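Q: Here's a chain of 741 amino acids. Please give me its 3D structure as tokens.
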Amino acid sequence: MDIGRKPLSDEDFGSAWKSIEKELRKLSSGGLCSGLEIYNNIYTVCTSSTPRLENKLYWKIGDFVYMRAREIRKEVFEAKDWIKEYNEGFRKFRQMVFAIDELCDFLNECVKGRTMRDLGFLLWERCVLQQTMKYKHTTLGFELVNQERIEVIKDAIESFRLIVPDLKKPMLYYTQRYEQFALQKIGSKYQEEIRSMCGEVEKYSFYVREKIWYEKSIREKIFLEESWEKMEEILEEVFILNKREYLFAEIYKIMSMHRLPVEILDKISKEMEHDKHREVGGYRTNDFYELQNDDEPKVKHSDVFLERMSVLYRNLSGLKSACEIFREVFTRYVREESERHVDVYSKGIETLYIFHCMLRHVVDVGFLGDHEYFKILKREFSTSCMKLRPSLEARLLEFSDWIVGENSNVFRFLDREFEKNTGGSHLDLPFLGPGKVKEEGLELGRRFEGKNEFLRQVFGTLYKMIENKHVFYEMYLSGLGRRLLEKGPNLYEEKKLISLMKRKGNQDFIKKAETMVADINISLSYNKDTDRFVWVLTQAYWPQQAEAPLIRIPESLEMIKRVYDSKFNKKKLCWAWNLGSVCVEIYGVEIQMNVLQYSVIDLFNRHEQVDFEKALSATKMGTKVIGDVLKSLVDSGLLVCAEGWYRIGDIFGIEKDIRGFYCSESVSMVHEIDKNSYYQSLASRILKRRKRMCMDDIVKETQAEHTERFGYDEVIFSEAIRILGDKGIIEEVEDAYVYLP
């Protein structure tokens, strides 16, 4: 609709344009113009009812801008220093175009297509840059690429940024007219120099570092910021990628010259074996690093090659492709060293940890403690540890027993260092590095308040090497339960070890472990009578969940149960027979037995002898259980059986603890990891990796990957596969099992 809009005659349009042109001339000459006058006339033209006048005005202003560009072109090409004059002329032109674009804001809204700003710089390209070949027999881009005065380059290439022939590719003109040629020149100018520098790799690294530093120092003057990454890629291609084979061979040659002092491991393992037959720990010489008073490890002769590596790494690590070479070299080195020395470092926790420290020392010195290489070390060493037999999980579980118990049999060669240090001051312990590197939050230092703190660091370091942590958690909870139920549990050390294992995603394990420790702590506060000590445990958090048979409780135990029922009146208590023990005095001899065995022995307080039926009816255990119990008592020698009747035997020649003679399947299973859960976890992990497998292949991979803690059980494994199907984790499809994401 044209309501409120007036038509404009040619005379009216001409008058409006003359007013606009008058003000634009003031603007182009560097003077002040009336913005209100320009805006009002533009508004009059654009709101008239006469069609297409706004387009006519748009091109009128474009003609004015083009004529101004022609005036500047003449000044540029007549100047002696035409590039300098180009920069000055473009600066004036740019100011004019920016000002006109702002004054024409309403016109830009009315005209479809380019804004006045984009049109102005396209006209500059048409009027000036396209005429460079005509007047100077060259192009501005070519002159800039070969320009020795780099101070004039930046202003000139800024003009290329403003020329946008394709709105979808705003940097196209700059890329095509300058960037590609400038990058080619950088690559070509070093080709000849590089041929003469590829001799000694350290010398070459200093050369590369110097040239990279120089090019980066001038990049702001010869490139727009959008080209910096491309420039670095060109430099990497010239200095690194084109020489990759040479660099890899030379760097790996230096890396492989560093020989790990594994003879120390052999010495330690022999001394460990020798110490098994000694009552007093011996003192060992610190051979890995010489002892000193400063904070840094003294560099020995074998570290010379690591120092050479550090020089190369310092000079080249700023380049991505060089870092890839370093990572590949270090990965190969760790793999080869781990495979070469597995027979030495796999002999015990001590040798395993010290070998890891030797590799960590390579990172500290050769790779300047770069955290990325600690990750590589962890990944590769973890892979090597998966092949250990016994498994790393089993070794760490046994090591945790030493930490919370008697630690004199582990790291005995360090005892002198700990004995000398009684105030928690700096310790010159071997294998620990400078004490400044942090590995996943665990500080690796030399200050320890005692041997146990050092042992916890060993545990924490090797714990990170375990890949299959969910299996280790089950094993650890079982071992933790066993330790806690022994007399005199070390709750302080248990809490410390649990805190070391806190990670994202293992909250369930941590909660169970902490609850188990808390249960023991509460039980210790409740129990005052050492002869009638009862552990009160939270059933859901303890892994020892063997099915307890229903039996008739002996009166002495029933009395204890009533006492604890009154203390825990808000909780339902039930006996965990497989976890407890009873100390029974028979003819003056104290004998330790489990609760089931005691339930049978208690019958002899009232009978001289009992038969199978009598024991069965009195204890209510069931035929299978009572048979196992009676067999254990006979095997131990506490009972003798004659013609179906059982009586007390010669107690003076039997063992003082007969619990081990009872080997009921349900009880023996709780002292091992849950095989069913273990097989479920292992099979699901294998299928998740392979997606689809037949049963035979699953069995083969399971047997190849599982630990030596127990033998393969076909029945339990088949049941585990069935449960995985019931849970919806896997599905059987055409004689194969498929992992369901």
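Q: Can you summarize the key feature?
A: Confidence is low (pLDDT under 50) at residues 276-301, 432-445, 665-672.
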